[in-house]
Q: What sequence folds into this?
């Protein structure tokens, strides 16, 4: 997919921008990594490496916490944007 197609399909938003917008919308709430992967990907066929995008957002100055939980016998990651 070229840049023009990507921008048209995703309204010019990057994975970081989509994740930041979603975390801001639910500021202070824990969001599961699979949800953020879907949001970041922007399409069912896309993919998103959530921990890398979270790292990018932290470099931009956002305070994002990560928490691991046991869910149905598996380790699951959750993230939240810390209120200012």
A:
């Amino acid at each position: 997919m070229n840049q023009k197609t990507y921008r048209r399909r995703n309204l010019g938003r990057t994975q970081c921008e989509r994740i930041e917008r979603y975390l801001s919308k639910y500021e202070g709430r824990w969001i599961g990594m699979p949800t953020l992967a879907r949001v970041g990907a922007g399409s069912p066929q896309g993919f998103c490496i959530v921990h890398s995008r979270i790292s990018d957002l932290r470099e931009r100055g956002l305070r994002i916490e990560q928490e691991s939980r046991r869910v149905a016998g598996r380790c699951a990651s959750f993230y939240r944007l810390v209120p200012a």
Observations:
- Helices lie at 3-10, 15-25, 33-41, 50-59.
- The chain has a mean pLDDT of 89.
